[in-house]
Amino acid sequence: MSEYKYGDRTYKLANGNYEVELSNEIKQPETVFKYYGKTEYSIDAIIKNYLFCSHPYHLNDSIDSSSLLWDFTNLSKAVFEKFYKQYGFDKVLVIDYEKEKASGFETIKQKFFELASKDAGVISLTTNSLQTLMWAHYSTESGFMIELDWNHIKNNLKGLNPKLNNYAFFPIQYVDKLESIDFFGNGFNSPDIPFLYSTAVKRKDWSYEDEWRLMTYTSDYGVPNSINGPFEDIPSHHDRKVYYPKDAIKSIVLGKRFFNSSNLKKVIDEKTYQLKPNSDLDFINFLIDHYNDKIYFCGEYQNGTEFKRSAEKVHFNKVDWNTIQMIREDKVYL
Known about the structure:
Blueprint lengths: L1 E5 L2 E6 L2 E5 L9 E6 L3 H8 L2 E3 L17 E2 L5 H10 L10 H6 L3 H12 L2 E7 L5 H8 L4 E6 H11 L5 E6 L1 E3 L5 E2 L9 H9 E3 L7 E7 L23 E3 L5 E6 L9 E6 L2 E4 L3 H12 L4 E9 L2 E15 L2 E11 L1
Parallel strand pairs: 6-11, 10-12, 15-18
Antiparallel strand pairs: 1-2, 2-3, 4-8, 5-14, 7-13, 8-15, 9-13, 16-17, 17-20, 18-19, 19-20
């Protein structure tokens, strides 16, 4: 078993399985939330019931899950040459220990990062359902948010995703100052634990997200190197998708600007909308057919001198093929 303790967490790899051991005070949530911008990819993910497994290069924090958190200072020449040959790097790279050392072992570090990240996916979830910054940053108020039953997802992960090797589910560890992990001074014999650690720590600037992260592991998700510049991608041989049961969705909350000029053809009255024939209309029809009893509409209300965010229970009535009524049920989910 390989492990690394940092703060109140222990990052483990035992029998090929990844685990983040938490303190007793931290309990796994029963419900988690996922925010979406209103795009064809987001709508497709809801219709087909999957979560996209991002590569670290897809993430909005450039040091999130980054090899910059790996300290190669203690890499000796003997271990350097052993690792180059063990992983076949000597067949594609020129071995020059002194040159690599002078550059902070940039090349071999990149190779190890590709080795670790090509089989891993990052799914960012939260326990915070009505956080204003989350709505602004991830759904731009015109998208939506789904509430998921985590236990139902967990119990069906392997059954619905037979190519999933293993996974880890843990809360992000928010820190005042990011610290690198000594890659070669802790007895690690692979990049697995350093990579797991780098996916689990973030600066406290991000703590408002209350993020719980689902890390998925399969074979050959690939590496989208072209995101960083004119570099070749490592091709994917497996979709970056993890499927979950349809009834794992407990609610769908539409952003307060979900209906706007991009999808509205005509406002007939305060609750009757004629929609343009586009993907938003298809999405609303899908919700009517599958989740009409689980729809909420996001808004804000005044409580004394404060403004707070809420989600009001609604359902849709279909008037004709592109005209719907949004009926408010006077039930507020705070």
